[in-house]
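Contributing: when you submit paired examples, paste them exactly as shown. First protein:
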Amino acid sequence: MNIPESLKYTKDHEWVKIDGDTAIIGITDFAQGELGDIVYVEIETEGEEVEQGDVFGTVEAVKTVSDLFMPIKGTVVEFNTELESSPELVNEDPYEKGWMIKISIAADANMDDLLDAVQYKELTGS
């Protein structure tokens, strides 16, 4: 299983790539593997500020629908529109082409709950 050292993770299996006051968010390789073939990604929070822990979208796989939880407080500034026509990118390349949203990190965002790669490996038993 692929767990890049450069990213942060949540217990809900989202990953976060922090770049200054912006963050890119998606679901982990572990999560996409558990979900199976992803057929639809729905993000309806573009332009909205979303609190940490709140749902920012959903992922629909062949057998289930799963909520996506915001890892840190911020405003959704961009959705990966490639996922509208090619949701399978989340399965094929969850950390690059399969990213889901970009956010502007809120000034009062709390990042203390994010896990590093070692902690995430422990969580998933990898």
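Second protein:
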Amino acid sequence: MKPKVLIGVTGGIAAYKTADIVSQLVKAHVDVRVVMTEAATRFIAPLTFAALSQQKVLTTTFPDNSSGEKDVIYPHLYPATEADAFVVAPATADSLAKLAHGFGDDIVCCSALSLKPDCKRIFCPAMNVQMWEQSIVRENSRKLLEMGWHQIGPEKGWLACGTHGYGRMSSPSAIVQIILHSIF
């Protein structure tokens, strides 16, 4: 049986890199599902992830219809309860705060609350250098690490906003290698 990875995409410019992560995981014979915050859909379309994963992409905790499919009726539970690994990429300052404090007000954070205890949890920070350097953002990252999450990045480099420093999401290849190592 293929390992199952749930990718949570949040609203940052690095969301475009997550498409490559999904593509590489699918090529590695991983069953990939994607959930996206509403903000993430402003940076990249759900259709991109649906095409790459060959799976429906969930963007809301409220069902559009009552088709009887469990991910339509209970999108906050499925596919999260079936995931072997959950990866938030990019993990924005906002999503780190919500995850660290147990908020469930979007499909990504609600999915995080529904994971099995043995599910691998990974977050890939990506944000402006000034945001990354805020003590509250660092505190939220530390809290997630203390709760058993694994952090990949951020890396130092040029950022989309034109600044230079830490805040750049790690390369998709590096992220994929860590995900694959955690599930195989």
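If you have annotations for the second protein, write them as plain sentences, like these:
The chain has eight helices and seven strands.
Strands lie at 4-9, 31-36, 85-91, 120-125, 150-151, 155-158, 164-168.
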